[in-house]
């Protein structure tokens, strides 16, 4: 038979009246008004269909039905206490590591200093780094938070915060320019050699644009990442598209720009399950503005007002 009983808080009231012998005494133990205690007992009797107490001027005397329910009520009380104790232990238990995914070259001292400040504010927080060029599956939980470089984040299930943009240009080494000259626009690309990032050809608009203006025999190297492109450009092998900050710091010379110089945006992305964790939400709220400020300061330091 289905029971209509569902107010577990009434069990606490029932036990107090059982132990104290009256609704007045029980109200003092419970911190409730006496009429409220009496009303909760009336409701409990109505829901269970039982007379639980015989009323008299001397107080409330438990019936046989009340004594039959007493062990079960005490078991509910004990379970509620255990529930609270386990919840309290969980609140003080060591936090799970925050798994942060990023490209290998993103793990810089500036980034780790932001993480260190967060640990100072949230002691006990630890991090696991997933250094990869691939976009890890945040939906499946392969990482909790990812630092991503992309035009946009298409998956609407992900939580994302944009922190800045990466501007690119075509760069050459001083040695290459000494031998072949400095092309100031793609119209001057004839006779020059170029380095392509094959890994990004499917999504890199600058490389797609360049390939429509040069012939295949002008491509002298095909690389799989920006580090390889940078190394090839530094050797004087040819001209390649690179982020302006890194290339400028490497002493490379800016030749010309693609039509849209924004290569990608910098995003902090969180998976839905990870976003439910308070420490992850606190980390995102702390990290995103700090890293955005770092990107802005770095851009101004290296490039000035020109992004």
TrEMBL record:
InterPro entries: LysR-type_TF_proteobact-type (IPR058163), LysR_HTH_N (IPR000847), LysR_subst-bd (IPR005119), WH-like_DNA-bd_sf (IPR036388), WH_DNA-bd_sf (IPR036390). Pfam families: HTH_1, LysR_substrate. SUPFAM superfamilies: Periplasmic binding protein-like II, Winged helix' DNA-binding domain. Belongs to the LysR transcriptional regulatory family. The keyword Chloroplast does not apply. This is HTH-type transcriptional regulator YofA. Keywords: DNA-binding, Transcription, Transcription regulation. GO terms for molecular function: DNA-binding transcription factor activity; sequence-specific DNA binding. The keyword ATP-binding does not apply. Residues 6-63 form the HTH lysR-type domain. Transmembrane segments: none annotated. Coiled coil: none annotated. It comes from the Bacteria. The gene is yofA. GO terms for biological process: DNA-templated transcription. It comes from Flavimaricola marinus.
């Amino acid at each position: 038979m289905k029971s209509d009983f569902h107010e577990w808080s009434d069990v606490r009231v029932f036990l107090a009246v059982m132990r104290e012998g009256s609704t007045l005494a029980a109200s003092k133990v419970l911190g409730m008004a006496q009429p409220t205690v009496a009303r909760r007992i009336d409701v409990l009797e109505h829901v269970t269909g039982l007379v639980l107490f015989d009323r008299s001027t001397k107080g409330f005397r438990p019936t046989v039905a009340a004594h039959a329910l007493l062990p079960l009520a005490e078991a509910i009380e004990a379970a509620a206490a255990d529930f609270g104790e386990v919840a309290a232990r969980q609140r003080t238990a060591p936090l799970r590591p925050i798994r942060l995914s990023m490209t290998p070259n993103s793990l810089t001292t500036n980034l780790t200093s932001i993480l260190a400040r967060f640990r100072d504010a949230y002691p006990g927080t630890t991090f696991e780094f997933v250094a990869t060029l691939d976009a890890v599956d945040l939906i499946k939980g392969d990482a909790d938070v990812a630092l991503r470089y992309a035009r946009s984040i298409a998956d609407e299930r992900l939580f994302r915060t944009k922190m800045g943009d990466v501007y690119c240009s075509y760069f050459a080494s001083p040695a290459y320019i000494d031998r072949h000259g400095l092309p100031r626009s793609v119209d001057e690309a004839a006779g020059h050699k170029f380095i392509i990032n094959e890994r990004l050809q499917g999504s890199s608009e600058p490389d797609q644009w360049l390939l429509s203006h040069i012939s295949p025999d002008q491509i002298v190297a095909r690389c799989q990442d920006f580090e390889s492109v940078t190394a090839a450009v530094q050797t004087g092998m040819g001209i390649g598209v690179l982020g302006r900050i890194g290339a400028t710091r490497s002493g490379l010379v800016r030749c010309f720009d693609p039509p849209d110089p924004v290569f990608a945006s910098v995003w902090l992305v969180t998976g839905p399950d990870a976003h439910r964790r308070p420490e992850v939400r606190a980390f995102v709220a702390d990290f995103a503005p700090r890293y955005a400020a770092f990107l802005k300061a770095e851009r101004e330091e290296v490039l000035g007002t020109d992004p």
